[in-house]
Specification:
Pfam families: RESC6. InterPro entries: RESC6_dom. With 343 residues, this protein is mostly helical. The protein is built from 18 helices and no strands. Among the domains are: 134 residues, no CATH class; 82 residues, no CATH class. The protein is 66% helix and 0% strand. α5 packs parallel to α7, α10 runs parallel beside α12 and α11 runs parallel beside α13.
Length: 343
């Protein structure tokens, strides 16, 4: 295994020639070595940190004049950003990789129209890895990506997830992605539908027409939904307060089929969603309470609060209700407005 000091030495060697290609290769090599090394990045000495800082400064200097990069150098920007983002997740405080990722992404913005879909996808995720997230960069890359043709449902839904993470609330842009996903062929999966409705709900993008179209796509593949999928879809529609009886009917049916896979979070989210729409589906709640009683020790305070709120709102009284509440007595649920606000 290689020590952090050896990693730094290799990185320095890779950056002796100030070209983006060599730096990109050097960064990839450092990433590979860091993932293989038994030494933690936290073990870097102060001298090592200063060396890494010098490397970062050199790369940033290379990128300052990025508006004039040659075509071949432009192609190196997405891989550099992607590699830096991965190192950023591993480094645990070594160097200033966050600033480097942002510098690379800022340089790439100028060349958006010249980049292909794969490059824009990498840049979007690299920008999305930063904290705080530069929403303007994510939005710019997402717009450029949306203008390309031939993108699949998974890629589109993943892009929407990054926009949700970075709080990009551009309604025309979000609508463009939602419509593209709705128009996907039969390759659309439960993963794609679940992610996009969940992300749009988090952004409070309550477009009734698009959500109802997405509900139809969800209904068409409901038999492939997992326990987590049905809970997330129901929760998303409840969050934006868009009602689809047909969807909730299918969600209830599928939830009962996959009940043995339900976790506490799934049960609470489903109960909350049905209570939000004032639907007292006694058959569903009987199954939910039976499952809840079986895994009562896994419920967190917020899950308990949501279950109690749902049961109280719907005046549910089915076999197992008292048993479930008895099992949770003494564990307690948070008091206050958690009972009064929608998730």
């Amino acid at each position: 295994m290689l020590s952090p000091r050896v990693v730094v030495a290799i990185c320095l060697c890779c950056t002796l020639q100030a070209s983006l290609t060599n730096i990109s290769r050097g960064i990839q090599e450092v990433h590979n070595l860091m993932t293989q090394s038994s030494s933690s990045p936290r073990d870097f000495t102060e001298v090592d940190r200063r060396k890494l800082s010098d490397i970062e400064h050199q790369l940033q200097s290379e990128l300052q004049d990025a508006r004039h990069l040659a075509a071949e150098d432009v192609k190196q920007l997405p891989p550099i950003a992607s590699h830096l983002a991965m190192i950023n997740a591993l480094r645990a405080g070594v160097g200033n990789m966050t600033q480097m990722v942002e510098t690379v992404c800022e340089a790439a913005v100028v060349h958006c129209d010249a980049l292909d879909g794969n490059s824009l996808f990498k840049l979007t995720f690299a920008a999305g890895s930063l904290s705080p997230c530069p929403s303007h960069l994510v939005e710019t890359f997402a717009w450029a990506y949306s203008r390309l043709s031939g993108q699949n449902g998974k890629a589109l839904s993943d892009m929407v997830l990054v926009m949700a993470k970075c709080n990009v609330r551009n309604r025309p842009l979000l609508g463009r992605y939602a419509r593209s996903i709705v128009e996907q062929d039969h390759s659309l999966t439960s993963y794609d539908v679940t992610n996009v409705v969940d992300a749009l709900a988090k952004l409070r993008f309550a477009d009734i027409e698009l959500f109802l179209q997405l509900s139809q796509r969800a209904i068409g593949i409901m038999d492939t939904f997992s326990a987590r999928d049905v809970a997330r879809v129901a929760g998303a529609f409840a969050t934006v307060d868009i009602f689809s009886f047909e969807l909730l009917h299918q969600v209830s049916h599928r939830a009962i089929q996959v009940m043995d896979d339900m976790a506490a979070w799934d049960i609470a989210k489903l109960a909350r969603a049905f209570a939000t729409f004032n639907i007292a589906d006694h058959d569903l709640f009987q199954h939910l309470l039976d499952r809840a009683a079986a895994i009562a020790d896994t419920f967190k305070p917020h899950d308990i609060a949501e279950m109690k709120w749902a049961l109280d709102t719907l005046h549910i009284s089915v076999t197992g209700c008292g048993l479930f509440l008895d099992l949770l007595s003494g564990r307690g649920a948070p008091r206050g407005d958690v009972f009064d606000k929608r998730p």
